[in-house]
Amino acid sequence: MHYILALYFSQVFHRGLSHLQYCPASATDLWRKLRHQRLSHGLPGFIRFVFFGMHGFLDEVLFTSLFNLVEKADQTLGGHTSLWSFLMYGSCSFVVEKLYFRLHFDRGWGTWQRLPIYICFVYTWEFTWGLALRQFDACSWDYSHYPHNFMGLITILYLPGWVFLSLYQDVLSNILLTIKCTRGAKCNGGEIGEVGPIKS
Questions:
Q1: Spatial distance between the Cα atoms of 128 and 122, rounded to a whole number of angstroms
Q2: Do 28 and 105 touch, CB atoms closer than 8 A?
Q3: Cβ(35)–Cβ(27) below 8 Å
Q4: Residues with Cβ < 8 Å from 113, sequence gap 6 or more?
Q5: How far from 131 is each of 57, 58, 112, 123, CA to CA, in Å?
Q6: What's phi and psi for 49, nearest 5 deg?
Q7: pTM
Q8: What is the pLDDT of residue 199?
Q9: Are strands 20-22 and 149-150 parallel, antiparallel or unpaired?
Q10: Where are the domains of the chain?
Q11: Residues 164, 53, 64: CA angle, nearest 5 degrees
């Protein structure tokens, strides 16, 4: 098994990673070119989904460890997550990114105009997933002991965290917009659509 994993990382993962390149350019310019010139730019949807899912894993472990430190004085900084979180965070962030692109670039909405929509969507997403998982005794969270909770699935107590992550999501989306995974010519001056492998 270790040999198979090593083979995968050396021949598939690292080889694919070597063809990622960052093209410094304005996110607005990149989106305009992507929309109007229909250039193939940015990471594929599946890769973005996986990235957001893995990032959600990290966020949840970090958040629960800090929360346990404050609430329970747990100095081991032990955090936890669930495999379901990968699907939850991956799909939620993927949709929120689409909202960001449409609302910000297409409609010109500012941050504070988009934020209420993000928060409503995140709470709806968390409640829907929690309600579905609870039917199979697979829900990994229960907020019943927290104030201002609804059915133990969502709580206002986590609002600051969701606000922070929603704003951080926009930053991640702008960064991912400047990354391309193709073979071809080099990326010069932030010109999208022509990114080649990173030379070692």
A1: 10
A2: yes
A3: no
A4: 103
A5: 20, 23, 29, 12
A6: -60, -45
A7: 0.74
A8: 41
A9: unpaired
A10: 81-177
A11: 55
